[in-house]
């Protein structure tokens, strides 16, 4: 049977913005040993800004326009940043055959031209030769009718409390912190280093994230728990696979909130610290 203190613990947690979907998860949180974070929207704000536009044989405005059009049906944070930088109304009559390819980008027909906008993986998949020089940041490469049209450099910011949250986790007996991301290696490593994350895996597709999580299970002790924290975009399978799947409720999708065991009502990584502290306190009272 469930000790009464667990109900108190769940109630107390909810007052602090942490929704726990059962006493078993509250108990498990106290045994968290490895914490795995998604990057975009979890440790970073998930709000990209356009930094530079590098067109190839078209103008900057034309490149931004075609990218914004191709992305206009997506609600990925990258898409939203391009809409915002473009800033003009989208004429839907110009767009057809929109397809979003998770972990890659989008394809669409704009004024009858086949447009692809996304990362290097997307360009490779479509056999388009793209700029492979050094890019410091996240690039959205664009191709029009199979021909490279340049790239748009975007960047996201680390959340103000991410570093403190990770430091506090380590003081609270979290043995290992890990970051998973579909973003490129350079960006991923820069962020992981500045956040003192122990291990980083980049350029992952949503299915690869599940595989990396599987591997991490072999690193934990018998009683230790593996926690995954994500904002939700494509993360439902990883949330479901972890011992404790934690979704950030603010930006999180309905699918993520459904798949999660714990929902943080605000998007602050420090709420995870709060959740672990409450669970430890509750466990002490229960024993
Ligand atoms: P993350 O792991 O950072 O949450 P995603 O799995 O959503 O990222 O996407 C991984 C990568 O795929 C992005 O960094 C980006 O390069 C590319 N990508 C995904 N969706 C889009 C999109 N709508 N437009 C452009 N690029 C995209
Ligand atoms: Mg994501």
Describe the structure in your own words.
It is found in: Cell membrane. It comes from Anaerocolumna jejuensis DSM 15929. The chain has helices at 4-15, 23-29, 39-43, 60-70, 77-86, 120-125, 162-171, 185-194, 206-217, 236-241, 254-259, 270-286; strands at residues 18-20, 32-38, 49-55, 95-101, 105-110, 113-118, 138-144, 147-155, 176-180, 199-201, 225-230, 244-248, 262-264. The two termini are 13 Å apart. The protein is elongated and about 70 Å long. The chain is of the alpha/beta class and 287 residues long. It contains 12 helices and 13 strands. Helix 1 packs antiparallel against helix 12 (270-286), helix 2 packs across helix 12 and helix 7 (162-171) runs parallel beside helix 12. The structure holds adenosine-5'-diphosphate and magnesium ion. Magnesium ion (MG) is lined by residues 38, 40-41, 233-235.
Q: How many domains in all?
A: 2
CATH topology annotation of the largest domain: Rossmann fold
Helix coverage percent: 25-40%
Which cofactor or ligand species appear?
adenosine-5'-diphosphate, magnesium ion
**Average of per-residue pLDDT values:** 93
Count of β-strands: 13
Strand residue content: 25-35%
| Strand and helix order | HEHEHEHHEEEHEEHEHEHEHEHEH
Counting helices, strands and paired strands, the structural category is alpha/beta
Give the full name of the CATH homologous superfamily of the largest domain. HAD superfamily/HAD-like
Low-confidence spans: pLDDT under 50, at least 5 residues?
none
| CATH architecture classification of the largest domain | 3-Layer(aba) Sandwich
Dominant shape: elongated
Strand arrangement within the widest β-sheet reads 1-13-12-11-2-9-10
Classified by CATH, the class of the largest domain is Alpha Beta
Q: What's the total helix number?
A: 12
Rg over alpha carbons: 21 Å
Sheet with the most strands? 7 strands, mixed
| Cα distance spanning the termini | 13 Å
Family: Belongs to the cation transport ATPase (P-type) (TC 3.A.3) family. Type IB subfamily.
Subcellular location: Cell membrane
Protein name: Cd2+/Zn2+-exporting ATPase
Organism: Anaerocolumna jejuensis DSM 15929
């Amino acid at each position: 049977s469930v000790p009464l203190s667990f109900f108190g613990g769940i109630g107390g947690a909810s007052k602090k913005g942490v929704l726990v979907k059962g006493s078993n998860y509250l108990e498990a949180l106290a045994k968290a040993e490895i914490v795995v974070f998604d990057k975009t929207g979890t440790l970073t704000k998930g709000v990209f800004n356009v930094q530079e536009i590098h067109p190839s044989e078209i103008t900057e405005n034309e490149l931004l326009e075609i990218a914004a059009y191709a992305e206009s049906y997506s609600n990925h944070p990258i898409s939203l940043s391009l809409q915002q930088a473009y800033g003009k109304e989208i004429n839907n009559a110009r767009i057809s055959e929109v397809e979003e390819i998770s972990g890659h980008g989008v394809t669409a027909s704009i004024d009858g031209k086949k447009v692809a906008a996304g990362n290097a993986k997307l360009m490779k998949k479509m056999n388009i030769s793209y700029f492979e020089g050094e890019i410091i940041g996240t690039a959205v490469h664009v191709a029009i009718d199979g021909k490279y049209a340049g790239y748009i450099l975007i960047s996201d910011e680390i959340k103000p409390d991410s570093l403190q949250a990770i430091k506090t986790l380590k003081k609270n007996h979290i043995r290992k912190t890990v970051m998973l991301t579909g973003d490129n290696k350079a960006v991923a490593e820069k962020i992981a280093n500045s956040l003192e994350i122990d291990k980083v895996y980049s350029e992952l597709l949503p299915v690869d994230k599940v595989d990396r999580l599987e591997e991490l299970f072999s690193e934990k002790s018998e009683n230790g728990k593996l926690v995954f924290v994500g904002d939700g975009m494509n993360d439902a399978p990883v949330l479901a696979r972890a011992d404790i799947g934690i979704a950030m409720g603010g930006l999180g999708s309905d699918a993520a909130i459904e798949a999660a065991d714990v929902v943080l009502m605000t998007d602050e990584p420090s709420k995870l610290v709060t959740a672990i502290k409450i669970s430890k306190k509750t466990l002490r009272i229960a024993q």
